[in-house]
Structure formats: C-alpha cells, structure tokens
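User: Predict the complex.
Assistant: Input components as received:
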Amino acid sequence: MELFVFVVAGAMVLGGALGVVLRSHPVHAALSLVLTLFGIAVLFVAQEAHFLAAVQVIVYAGAIVVLFLFVIMLLGVDNAEDLRVEPFKIQRPVAAVVGAGVLALVGLAILASRDATVPTVVQSEAVQEAALSPHDSNIKALARDVFSDHVLAFELTSVLLVIAVVATVMLARKPRKGEHVIEIVEGAGK
Amino acid sequence: MLGLDPLLDDLDFTAIVVVLIKVLVVFVVGLVGTMLMVWFERKVIAYMQNRMGPNKAGPNGLLQTLADGIKLFFKEDLIPEKSSRFVFKLAPYLAFVPAFLVWSVIPLGGDFSNGKDGTVTILGKTTKLQLFDPPVGVLLLLALSSVAVYGIMLAGWSSGSKYPLLGSVRASAQMVSYEAALGLSLATVILIAGTLSTNGIVTAQSSITRWHVIATGVLPFVIFLMAATAELNRPPFDLVEAEQELVGGFNTEYSSIRFALFFLAEFMNTITMSGVIVTLFFGGPQPVKVLGNSNILSILGPFSGTVWMLLKVLVFLYIYVWFRATLPRLRYDQLMNLGWKLLIPVSLGWFMLIALFRVGSDSGWSRAERIVAGAAGLVVMAACASLLRLANKVSARNREREGAMF
C-alpha cells in the first residue's frame, strides 16, 4: 500500500515537474506546478505529516500559484513562448552544468546513505516527543517547537517577509510628478 | 489504511460496508440537498418578492430543479473556438469536486451528549457519523476552498473571452482576499477549542454558553459569516456574476452539463458553508436545551444529532437567501476596502485579545492581573486602530491627488 502511494505520488511530482519545464504555455506550466505540489502533499500525508500536507496545499497551491496565474493573466503574457529564442546566451550551458551537478550530488548522497545506519540529526525535545506519541499530537509538537525553541528565527522570518512586502510596494509604486527617488529607481532598471 | 475510519480497527466485510454506506449517503444527500436548496432559494425569494416562484413541476414546483437538470443534460455542449480546450474542460470539475469533498469532514450527526465523542453504533460497528475525521480537519476546509479558486479562475481564463476573464479575475481576487479574514476568525475558534479536528470542535461546544459563537464573543462569527458569503460569491458579494457589467461572469461561455456543474457547485458550497458555520460556531449536531429538557429529539435515538444539524443548517440557508433578497450588491472598491481595511484588522485584533485571555487562563492570572492585561491590550489595539485610520486617510488623500479612480 505504501509503495503504491509512493509510486503514484512520485509519478505526479515528476510528471508535474517535467510539465513545468517542457510545457511552452505559461498557464499550463503553472498548472503542472500545482500537480507537483499536490503530489508532495500526498507524500506528506503518507508520512503522517497531515499538517504539512494541509499547509502545502493552502500556502503553495492556494496562494502562491494562484498569484502566479494572476500575474500571467493580468499581464497578458499567456501566449506560448518560443523555446528557440534564447534571452541570455550563457543561460542554457550553465543550466546544464548546474543540473548535472545537483544530480551528481543527490546520487552521491544516496550512495553514501546506504552505508549509514542511524540518522545523526540533533532533534529538539518537542520533536522527540512527537515521534513517541500518537498522530494527533504532531501539530502541537510543531507549534511548541516553532514558538519556543525557534521563536527568534520564526519572528525574524516574519520580519523579513514584512520588509519584502513593503519593499515591493515601494518599488512598484507609480512614479509621481516631482519625485526623484522613483526616477532613480527607474533609471537603474533600464 | 487510507480513507478508512480509524475506529473500525479490525478490517472486515462490515467495516467496508459501513464506509461504503457513509460515502454513498454523503454523496446522495449532497446531490439531493443541492436540488432542494435550489428549489428552496427560488421559492423563498419569490415569496419575499411577492411572486409565486416555481409551481408547475411536481408538488409546489419541487421537481423544477430536476427538470432544469435534465434540460441542461440534453443541451448542446459548446466549446468556444478561442478557448484552451483542456483547461476549459477541466475547470468545472475543479469547482465541483472541492464542493463535494467538504462534506466528508463535517460531522453530520452523532451522539455528543455527556461528553461522548459523537460515535454511534451501526451494524454492530462503532463509528462516527462523519466520513473522515483527519487531525487537520479545519485546515482541510481552508485547503479545499483555496482549490476551488482554481475552478473559477481557470474557467474564466480558458474561455478565451473578455467578460469571463474579468469575472474570474474579480472572483479570484475576492476569494483570496477574504480567505485571510476567514482564516483569522477560524483561528479564534481553534484557539478556544484547542483542536483542529472538526469532531473535537463539536465536542468542545457541549452547552449553549460554550458554543463558539458565544465563547469567542460573537465578533469572529460575524466576520466569518461575511467572509464566507464573499468566499461563496453570493449576494451581496456577487460581483463575479454582476450581470449588468459582465454578462454572466466567469461561466458566460459554458453551456450544457459543464454549466450545470458550476451551478451545482455554487449551491452545494452554500449548503456546505452553512454546515461549516454550524459546526464551528453553533455546536454542530449538539442538541439545544429547551425548557430544561436537554434533548427534546432524543426519541429519534442516534439520529437526533442529524436532525439538530439539519435544523441549524436550514436557519443559515434561510439567512443566505434572505441576504440575497435584501442586500444590494457592493461596488468593487467597497468590497476590497471592507475586506482588507476592516475585516482583516478587526479579526486579527480580536484574535490577539482572545489569545491574551487564553494565556491568562493558562498561567493562572488573578482577576486584577487579567483586568490590567485586558486594559493594556485594548489600549494597544486602540493605538493600532488609530494608526491604521491615519494611514488610510493619508493614502486616500494621496490617491485623490494622483487622480486615481479609487
């Protein structure tokens, strides 16, 4: 049963990922991304990580890809891309090198992990507790972990997000007459 | 095993039969309920407007929806030439399937009296009257509502036509914006109940004073009701299908059975959303104490919970129809202002206040400490509110100077 779920979800993830790269139409590519995200959510459920699965769907499929689609639709770039045109000349060779590198790294990691017996990751108390207790408690354990041991990192991340939002609003604001800051930014963009 | 009720521990034939019966009941009740809901809405709104409403097909026009459905089946299925064919065919199902799936996590009945956890015994098996009770129940509702956005968005886009695109852009902007307010008022309920499971949330509301509508202080309920109405694209938030401006909105190009699926999804969403509201704020299948009698429907045995649920859901269905008959449609800028500048800040502030009291009760504060903390919280919130007001004023003035529309 577990193998079956893994194979189906894995096929979803891989198929979606290939679709993102190979589909020439931006909307179809974005939809393939949704397929990948759902596949990952299924894998999370198979690992009893229900909370992560739900958040995966709510945040990534429900907000981020919707935003992608929104931009694609509103900007009207929803016509198929010509793959023969290369915007940056160096892009494709670099992509090939990076891809081969990542593949080699993952392969090496798998080969190395075959001999390893016990995971040596240091786990916090809450995570250890969750591993011992029944399935319902892993949300509570996650909350305790995020809001106690890692509360500083958590808060810093939210500050970072707020800064990013404010910066985006500032950069995307329409230029107003008699304002120099915006003109400088525009000049830098060209 | 996936999809099976964890209470049915040893897997045998009856267990599978019980699960199959549950699936079938949820499916059939969903479809028949939608059919009756369409009739109910047309009839009630007709009486509110001094008309008769459907009265030809069946007794009191009860079979009108069935007749309409059959008619839709036999109509020609058009696919516009400029459409994106695959997405155009996919979109109705993306709208329809989530609407159905929401049913699976709502407790549709069961015995919650005296702290029982809503299990009943059918065919010698102890089971919940709920298709599936995942530990993340409420989050699943949010996830499904965010998937439903795709159906509407892609329907509008794939039609390859201007008005549906505008309608779907409106719809998805509205749904994404109001999801925040919806989630924040939901968070208040989760905070009080202390669990995400829908079954646990119902169990926590054991008496009328512990119903979350009262326990969370009414405000989250009001916000949830408004946000849910916007999420459903129902009047007064039905800008999506503002027929004076957008022909028919996102579903303009759809015909035949594909249109029927959108139509069905819309009405089914109304029913499921009423079910969600009842589950979250009004104790779901928990009985109401009338004249000192804890459950006047106890004569119905294990199904009294289902009848209570049905009665409560009917109240909300009536309220939704009532909204449609009374309230005029909002303008787009009013809709966005209401969502972003009023509902989200208010629900966030209220959530913080409830969290403060929760911390107080967890760490055993004395009465005086609670009053001081509450007052401090109110002062901070008032300061935040006035800052927000100021910011809004400044931005409104700036926009006026730039000559923007709104």
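The interface with chain B takes residues 1, 5, 25, 27-28, 31, 34, 45, 50-51, 53-55, 57-58, 61-63, 66-67, 69-70, 73-74, 78, 135-136, 138-139, 174, 176 of chain A (CB under 8 Å).
Let me know if you want any component modeled separately.
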